[in-house]
Amino acid sequence: MSNMKGVKSVRGNGSARLDADDDPFDDGLSDSSPRCIEFQGLVRREIELLGEDVERQGLKKTPLRVAKAMTWLTRGYEMDVVDVVGDAVFEEDHHSMVMVRDIELYSMCEHHMLPFFGKAHIAYIPDGRIIGLSKLPRIVEMYARRLQVQERLTEQIASAIEDVLRPVGVGVVIEAYHLCMMMRGVEKQNSKTITSALHGSFRDDAKTRDEFLRLAYGPSTPLR
Ligand SMILES: [Zn+2]
């Protein structure tokens, strides 16, 4: 996920400086749109309320950068499941569990507007239709790029897959770290929040549920 394009110089102390004109979020919002201008005013005021000098060199372009970053990080509001899935649903006579594990996700908690991040594991049992596998991470992305709570995010992903595929069952597990907990440093440094949503046979059939949860909670590669 690192964008080395933005790194202009590396100082002796190892810290890299991002050039304001080479912003990684610079593709979501036009600088001169009314929305962007109003957003910048709010961020400028926020910086003042923090007791900082908005005219200071390093902060001068921060309102614009924040407006763009927040727009980019919540761009899921502009997407809907029909567009995301497109025509990637196929008739297929497959009746066993299909699972995609370790889908990276980055979201923002709606209580503090701070990031939470982790992995989603998704499985379903088809009923005559399958979905292009690359669409599952895109469904995750669509709902993660909003202000969220992890519980709702998990449920929305499961419901979207159910709506699109009408499968025999679907299960979603998300494991995530919440910066609002970690940054306060209150004995929550390594606590991971795990949520699940189980629909159809994943809820009603103990064997299916057990198989899914065993696969979802099994050993995986560590978070990068
Ligand atoms: Zn929070």
Give keywords:
single chain; 224 residues; alpha+beta; GTP Cyclohydrolase I, Chain A, domain 1; GTP Cyclohydrolase I, domain 2; 5-stranded mixed sheet; two-stranded antiparallel sheet; 8 helices; 35% helix; elongated; disordered N terminus; binds zinc ion
Q: Could you walk me through the main structural features you see in this protein, from its secondary elements to its overall organization?
A:
The protein is an alpha+beta fold and 224 residues long. It has two domains: 4-73, GTP Cyclohydrolase I, Chain A, domain 1 (Orthogonal Bundle), CATH 1.10.286; 82-217, 2-Layer Sandwich (GTP Cyclohydrolase I, domain 2). 35% of the residues lie in helices and 25% in strands. It has eight helices and nine strands. The protein has helices at residues 34-49, 62-73, 81-85, 135-144, 150-165, 179-182, 201-204, 206-217; strands at 7-10, 16-18, 89-91, 98-109, 115-125, 129-131, 147-148, 169-178, 193-200. The chain has a five-stranded mixed beta sheet with strand order 7-4-5-8-9, with helices on both faces. A two-stranded antiparallel ribbon has the order 1-2. The chain has a two-stranded antiparallel ribbon with strand order 3-6. Helix 1 (34-49) packs across helix 2 and helix 4 crosses helix 5. Mean pLDDT is 89; it is low at 1-16. The structure holds zinc ion. Zinc ion is lined by residues 109, 111-112, 114, 178, 180.
CATH superfamily name of the largest domain?
A: GTP cyclohydrolase I, C-terminal domain/NADPH-dependent 7-cyano-7-deazaguanine reductase, N-terminal domain
Number of helices: 8
List the helices and strands in order. EEHHHEEEEHEHEHEHH
Name the overall outline: elongated
CATH architecture of the largest domain: 2-Layer Sandwich
Enumerate the spans where pLDDT stays under 50 for 5 or more consecutive residues: 1-16
Class of the largest domain, according to the CATH hierarchy?
Alpha Beta
Proportion of strand residues: 25-35%
CATH topology of the largest domain: GTP Cyclohydrolase I, domain 2
Mean pLDDT: 89
Biggest β-sheet: count, sense, barrel? Answer: 5 strands, mixed
> How many domains in all?
2
Rg, rounded, reads 21 Å
Determine the structural class based on helices, strands and strand pairing: alpha+beta
Query: Within the largest sheet, what's the order of strands?
Result: 7-4-5-8-9
Bound molecules: zinc ion
The helix content is 25-40%
**Based on DSSP secondary structure assignment, what is the total number of beta strands?**
9
